[in-house]
Amino acid sequence: MPFKRSPMRFAHIVGYTIVFYQDDGNCIVSVGYDGDFRIWHGIGDDDPPTTCIGEHAWTALQYGDRVLIATDLNTVQACKYPSLEKDGIEFRFTAYVTCIAKNKRFLTAGSEDATIKVLSTDNGEQFELENLGGPVLCIDLSKHNLIAASIGDGTIRVWDMNTKELKKTIDGLPKVKSFEAVLHFSTPSFEPKTGSLMAYPLEKEVIVVNTKTWQVVKKFSKPKLSADLTVCAFSPMGDYLAAGSEVGEVIVWDFDTQKLIDGCAQFGTYPITRIVWNPKNNGELAVSDANGQIGTVTEIFLEAEEDDDGAGEDIVEMAEKEEEDGDDKMFDEFVVKETEVEDNDDNGDGPDDDELNENCVEIEKLKSQVLGPTQRAPENDALSDVDDDGASSVRSERFIGPKSFPQQHPFQPGSSPHSQDHCYLVYNHVGMVRRHATEKENSIEVEFHNSQQHHGIHLINYLNHTMAGLSETVLAMACSSDDGSPSKVVCINQASFGKREWSFTMPGCEDIVGVTASDKIVIVATDSRLLRVFTARGTQREILSIPGPIVALAAYGDHFLVAYHSAPANEDQNITLMIVTCINFKLRCREVRVPLTAGTELRWIGFSDRGSPVVYDTAGVLNLYHAASNVWFPIYHADNLQTKGASDSLFIIKVSESTQAIQLILCRGARYPLTNPKPVPMEVQFLLPLCDQDSEKEQLEEQLVRSLYFKQNNADKLIIETALKLFALACKNECEQRAKELVETIASSQLIPLAIKYASKIRRYHLADSLAPLLPTFQEQENQEEKLEQERIRESEAIVSELQHINIEAVTKKDTTPKIKPLPVGTKKSSNPFRKSTPAGGDSVASSSPASIPGGTGNPLEHLTGKAIGFSTSSNSSGSPYVAKAPANGGQVENRPHNNSAGTSGTPSGSGGGKFKLWFEQNQAELQQRHPEVESSELVRIGVREFRALQQKGTEGGKASKENGTPHKTSEKRKLDESEPAESGISKLAKFGFVQNN
Questions:
Q1: For residue 163, is pLDDT > 60?
Q2: What's the pLDDT at 919?
Q3: In sequence order, what are the beta bridge partners of 232?
Q4: Looking at residues 969-992, what average pLDDT do you find?
Q5: Number of alpha carbons in the 13 Å side-chain half-sphere of residue 586
Q6: In the beta sheet, which residues pair with residue 168?
Q7: Is 406 exposed, middle or buried (0-12, 13-18, 19+ CB in 10 A)?
Q8: Which pLDDT value is given to residue 930?
Q9: How confident is the model at residue 821 (pLDDT cuts 50, 70, 90)?
C-alpha cells in the first residue's frame, strides 16, 4: 500500500524552517524564522507548547535532557529540555549558526561565516575548519567519525575527525553566497548502520558513493520528476532513502532494490528544507518547507502479505498510477479480478462464498474504503455511477496553488538588529547612535565623527527607542507601541537655542516603522502606510499616503526617499522609490523602480553627498540614480573588494559623488559591524562593471563615463583629459574612425583644438582635416545651449526674486498708507508748479512754495514717484530738497516738493546730492585754483564743506526775513535758461499732493 502524506500545516512565519524528532520519537520539534520553538504531540496537535528563543532561529538538536539551539546571537545555546532553561554555550561564531550534528564522540556546528567547529565529547577538545569558501549549509556525521558538509561554494567536503584530514571534495553542486538565499541544500547523509555509504542530491538524482573508494555505487531517480532535489536522508536502518524537491515533492526508494515507493502527490509547491526519519523506525518521517509549514509521511514500510493481497488496493489510485506509469499489466490483473467477481455473482454464490474466495474482490468493500464509512454507495447502479464520479471529483480538488513569496520587512538603513543587547540604531556619515539594553543599563549613546562641531550625548532610554535618524543638526528617535503605550517620535536639535527638544505621539493605533532626519525635515513612516513630514523645529507639515507597504526611508536637505512595495513579491522584490522634494509648502514627487539583483532584497538606501539617490542590495550591488537621465548606474560591486571573504558583507556608511569614493565597513563573517570595538571604516573608489577592466582602454572609458554622468569635482577638466588620452590611444592603435567618433560623441569645442594639434603632431593630417569643420558646429551648439541656460537662469532668478520680494514684503509690511486730511476753505493758495524761480541772492522762492505754507498739501504718492524719478525720499531736512520741517508750534510735517530749482552757487536752495553735483561742477575750476596742491578726492571734501556753509547761510537768511515780517519777494517770469536742466513732467506732477498726518 502506498505511503500516506498529511496536509502541510503552518507552524511558523514564512521563512526557513526545520523539523526533527525527539530522541524517543514521541514528539516532533520545529524551529522557524520567527524564533519560536514548538513541541508537537503529533501533527494534529492544535496547541503545541511554544517558546520564543530569539528574533530568528536557524536550527536545533535535541538529545537526552538537553537541546542545542542556534539563534541570531551567533552562538549555540544549550538549554534544558523541555523547560528550555539556559545551560551554557557550546560554540561561538562571528555569524549565525546554520546546522548542528552529533554522534557518540563528536559534536559539530557550521556557520554562515564559512567555519565548522568540532567538539570532542570524550576529552572536551575543540578544533575548527576555517576558510571553507562559503557558508556551511548542512552537516552529517558517520559511525566512523567522518564529517561531511555541503558548502556554499558548490562542494561537499569530507574530513576524518580523528586525524583532521580532508578526505574528499565533491564538486559540481549549486553555488550560493548566503544561507538565506539557499534553495538546494545538497544534504549529505551517511548510511546509519555501517557508515560505509554516503548519499547526496544532485539535480534530479540522489548519488550514493562509497566512503572508502569514493566511487559511485548507486543512483536513485524518479521518472517525470518536475524539479531538482534539495535534501535527502537515510532511514534509521538504512533500508530506505527519502528525498525532497524544490516544489514540495517527497520521494521514497527501497535502497536495496532501488524500487520507487508509491505515495500521495505533494500538497504544496514550496522547497523542502528538512527531511528527518522517526527514530522508532516505524515508517514515518517529518518534513518542513521554506513557507513555515511542517507535515508527516506515514505507512512507508510494506509487508509482504499486504503486498500480495489485492483487497487493500485503492481503485482510484491504481487508475491514476496506470495513467502516469502506463502499467498495463497491473490494470489487466485488476480487470481479470473484477470479471471473476461478476462471474461469481452470476453463478448465484452468496456473500459467504465471496468472503472465502481469496481471488474475489468485493466492489462495495472497495468503495467503502475509498469513500469512507459514512459515504457508502447505494444499491442503485445509477447512483453508484454518480458516487464514483463524485469520488473522482473529490480527488480532483487537490490542486497546486500559486506559489507565494515573502515581502521584505521594513528596516532602518545603517542600523543593526535591535534584538541584540548592543546595537546600532543608525550609523552614517554624521555619527553613530548606539543602544545598550542589558539588565543593568538601558541607554542611548550618540557619538559624532566631528567632535569639534557637536559633543557626544548619553540618554536614558525611558521610552525604549528602537529607531533613530541622525543629521548634522537633528537627532530623531522613535519607539513602537508596547504594553498600551503609544508609538512616539522624539527629536533633539543640536544647533538651536531655547527649547531644543520636541515630540509627537502617533494617533490611534499607528505604529512607527521607520524614521529619518535631515537638517531641514524629519520623516516618520507608520504601519498605516502614512508618511508624516515635520520640520526640523517641530512644525507638522504634510501627511502623505503611500500606495504600498513601506520598506525604508532616507532624507537629504529638502529631499527624502520612500521605498515601498508596489506589487506582491515573486522571485524578486517589487520595490518602488518615491523621490520627494519639499520647498516651503510645495511638494514635487517622482517615482522610479528600484533595480534589485534577481532574488535579492534591499539592504541600504540613502543619498550621495551631491543629493543623488543610492541603493544597495543583498547581492552586493550599489546603484546610483542619475536624475537628469532618469536611469540607474551600477557604481560598485562587493566582489570588487579583494579582501572580502565569501561570508563577509559590506556595511555602507557614505557615498561621495564629488570624490567618487564609498565609505564602508567590511564585516568579517557577519552582516553588521560590532559595537565594541568600534569598527574602522575604509574607502573604495567607484568602479563601473565595464568589460575587460584590466586593459588601459577600458579603464579610461570607465573614467570618462563617470566624469560625464556623475557630479565629480573638476569634471570638465577630467572629461577633456580622459577623452584626449582615449583619442591618443585610438590613434596609436590605428583606429582613426574610433578617434573621430569619440570627438563627435563628446562634442566639446575645447577638445577639438587639442585633438587637431595632437593629430597634426603625429602626422595624422587626414584626421586633423576631418576634425576641423566640427569646431564651428560645436561652438554654435554651445552658444545656443549657453543662451538657453542663461534664459533659464534668468527666468529662475526672476521667479526667485519675485518670491523673495513677496516673502520680504509679507514679513516687513507696515501700514504706510497716508491719512488724508481735507484743507480748510480758503487756506489753499494757488501756485504754478511750472514756474521757474529767479536766481537772486536773497530773493528765494522757497517761502512761496506750497511746502513753506503750514496749511499746504502733502504728496501721498511720493514713495512711488520719488522712486520713479530717482530722488531720495528721506525726511531729513538737511539731506532732502523735497521735505521741509514744519514750524515747531505746528507739529505737522508736510511732504511737499519745493518749487525752486538749484540756485546759484551763492544761494543754494537745498543740500541734495544732485544740487551739490551741479554746484561742484560750476565751482570746480575756482576751487582748483584756490587749492592747487590737493588731490581730486580732497577737493571734493573741501567743496562739500563750502557747500554746507553756503546752505546754512541761506537758511539763516530765510529765518531772519520771516522774523522781521518781510516776506520774500517772488521773482517775475523769466525766460528759460538753456544751461538749466529741463524738468520732466513726472517731477512736476509729483509736486501736487495732500496733507499727511503723522
A1: yes
A2: 84
A3: 243
A4: 52
A5: 2
A6: 158
A7: middle
A8: 83
A9: low
- Residue 826 pLDDT > 70, yes or no? no
CA-angle at 268, arms to 266 and 272, nearest 5°: 85
Query: What is the residue type of 444?
Result: I
Arithmetic mean of pLDDT, 62-90: 89
Structure letter (DSSP) for residue 350: -
Q: Distance between CA 423 and CA 417 in Å, rounded?
A: 7
Read off the pLDDT of residues 33-58 as tens digits, 9 standing for 90 and up: 888 999 998 888 888 888 888 888 88
Supply the angle between the helices 736-746 and 715-732 in degrees, to the nearest 10: 160
Helix, strand, or coil here: 357?
A: coil
| Integer angstrom CA distances of residue 482 from 55, 237, 438, 440, 597 | 17, 51, 18, 21, 36
CB atoms within 10 A of CB 441: 11
pLDDT value at position 992? 55
Q: What rounded mean pLDDT belongs to the chain? A: 77
Q: How confident is the model at residue 130 (pLDDT cuts 50, 70, 90)?
A: confident
| Long-range CB contacts (within 8 A, 24+) of 719-723 | 719/746, 719/748, 720/748, 720/750, 720/751, 720/754, 723/748, 723/751
Q: Quick one: pLDDT band at residue 982, thresholds 50, 70, 90?
A: low
State the pLDDT at residue 481: 86
pLDDT value for 109 = 94
Establish how many alpha carbons lie within 13 A of residue 329's alpha carbon, considering only the half-sphere containing its beta carbon.
0
CA angle 963, 968, 971 (to 5 degrees): 175
Three state DSSP letters for 697-735 = HHHHHHHHHHHHHCCCCCHHHHHHHHHHHHHHHHHHCCC
**What distance, in Å, lies between the first and last C-alpha atoms of the chain?**
112
Neighbours of 971 (CB within 10 A): 17
pLDDT at 973 over 50: no
408: which DSSP letter? P
* 332: CB partners within 8 A, 6+ apart: none
Measured CA to CA, the distance from residue 491 to residue 600 in angstroms comes to 34
- Alpha-carbon distances, residue 854 vs 41, 900, 964 (angstroms): 110, 18, 18
pTM: 0.51
User: Which residues have C-beta within 8 Å of that of residue 349, sequence separation ≥ 6?
Assistant: 357
**Lookup: cell for 526:** 507608520
pLDDT for res 363? 58
Closest CA to 984 of 896, 908, 823, 871: 871
- pLDDT computed for residue 628 by the predictor: 86
For cell 447512483, what's the residue?
383
Site of grid cell 546546522 = 99
d(CA 57, CA 729): 57
CA-closest candidate to residue 550, choices 467, 483, 610:
467
28-31 sheet: strands from edge to edge: 18-21, 28-31, 36-40, 50-52
- Helix, strand, coil percentages in the chain from 3-state DSSP, rounded to 5: 25, 30, 45
